[in-house]
Design goal:
heterodimer; A: alpha/beta; Amidase signature (AS) enzymes; 8 helices; 9 strands; about 35% helix; globular; B: mainly alpha; two-stranded antiparallel sheet; about 30% helix; about 5% strand; flat
């Protein structure tokens, strides 16, 4: 199988662009753990083109025509060698043409890595749909829950805060783009960042600095982190009575915020987003497979 | 801190201070767009004040794992040359940066 990789997943010796001028000349001295696992399993890393790849890995949802996407439980796929975005939410996701391929790849990349201490032991993972009787699955469609309106602002606050801290390493000092004609070190850093970051990156970093600043930390960042716990509790409550939450693809932004904040796994297939509680990918696999037919 | 202290309106934002914290400059266009962006999002952030979070612990990370330890042994992953290969400027085996002490 050939696996395509997003540019934020490092491959030793291969230029990593991250879609930004900042790393235009950066050749990673090591590969991401997921890349090592792919190669060890006899799979190949494809040259930037989804057309000739059987599956793809990315941190964000990639809309592949007639394809599927798995966002695994947070803490089941190593983030070593993956350029950090929002560390408490980042999960390497799998795109593929069908669920069998996607889960084959997920089984390869998931699990232990000595360089990522946030991984759960592999005994907890379950990617086997065979023992699931889908007629017995309790599914709730578009549940109306109390904190739904908080999802987007809470995700924005927390992801911006983490993003802002994570991109502080891009400063033109040790690697990446360095501008010409700077007067001092501060100007070097400001010029390299200003020239390389696009407006979305800048705004997100500014938002992060805003919610983390002394005056705002408690009322925005800490408040959001507390509501995050309430959201998790409320969703855990739904999963006490149901196996799967199903949302229409039109609710992608809400669904993304939900799975990012809670760490729950999801399968996106056709016009549906299926979400389960942690380590129940097997239920998503079983139900998703029935939708594929 | 009381919820009444949530700020609204144009005076909430000191963009110059934020830019210096993040170490970026904005173009004139970006500056205008950033104002609109903050107006939009800060209003949504302020909407969170109505949620009662009394006695709720913040959830910083969803992982329930604690204290995964590994052997404290030194090992070499990279050579000095490999690391310096990506440096925009290096000198005598060190990263070279502009002088910071006059």
């Amino acid at each position: 199988m050939k696996i395509d990789l997003d540019e934020n997943i490092l491959v030793k010796g291969r230029y990593c662009l991250t879609g930004s001028k900042m790393l235009y000349n950066f050749k990673p001295p090591y590969s991401a753990a997921v890349v090592e696992k792919i190669l060890k399993a006899g799979m190949f890393v494809a040259v930037k083109s989804l057309d000739n790849a059987d599956a793809g890995l990315s941190l964000i949802f990639r809309n592949i025509k007639d394809g599927v996407n798995i966002k695994p439980t947070y803490g089941t796929v190593s983030r070593f060698g993956v350029i950090a975005n929002a560390s408490s939410m980042d999960s390497v996701r799998v795109n593929a043409k069908n669920l069998d391929d996607a889960f084959t790849v997920l089984s390869v990349i998931a699990g232990s890595d000595k360089n990522d201490p946030t991984l759960y032991p592999a005994e907890k993972y379950n990617y086997s749909p065979e023992n699931i009787n889908i007629s017995e699955l309790k599914i709730i469609e578009s549940p109306d829950f109390k904190l739904k309106d908080c999802l987007l602002p809470v995700e924005k606050i927390i992801s911006s805060a983490e993003f802002s801290a994570n991109i502080s390493r891009f400063d033109g000092l040790n690697f990446g783009f360095r501008p010409e004609n700077y007067k001092n070190i501060n100007e070097l850093i400001i010029d390299s960042r200003s020239e390389c970051f696009d407006y979305q990156t800048k705004f997100k970093a500014l938002t992060g600095a805003y919610v983390l600043s002394e005056d705002n930390f408690e009322k925005y960042y800490l408040k959001a982190a507390k509501i995050r716990r309430l959201i998790k509790r409320e969703l855990d409550g739904i999963f006490d009575n149901f196996d799967i939450i199903a949302l229409p693809i039109e609710n992608l932004d809400i669904a993304e915020a939900l799975i990012n904040l809670t760490g729950f796994p999801a399968v996106i297939i056709k016009d549906k987003i299926l979400i389960s509680k942690e380590f129940e990918e097997n239920k998503l696999y079983a139900l998703g497979r029935s939708l594929e037919k | 801190m009381s919820f009444n202290e949530f700020d609204t309106g144009i005076y909430y934002l000191n963009l110059d201070k934020l830019k210096s914290l993040v170490k970026i400059e904005l173009t004139e266009e970006e500056e205008i767009a950033a104002g609109n962006y903050f107006d939009f999002w800060v209003e949504k952030f302020n909407g969170l004040k109505k949620i009662d979070t009394e006695n709720i612990e913040p959830l910083i990370n969803v992982s329930s794992l604690e204290n995964i330890m590994r052997e404290d042994t030194a090992y070499k992953i990279f050579t000095r040359e490999e690391l310096l290969e990506n440096a925009p400027e290096h000198c005598d085996g060190y990263f070279a940066v502009p002088r910071i002490i006059e």
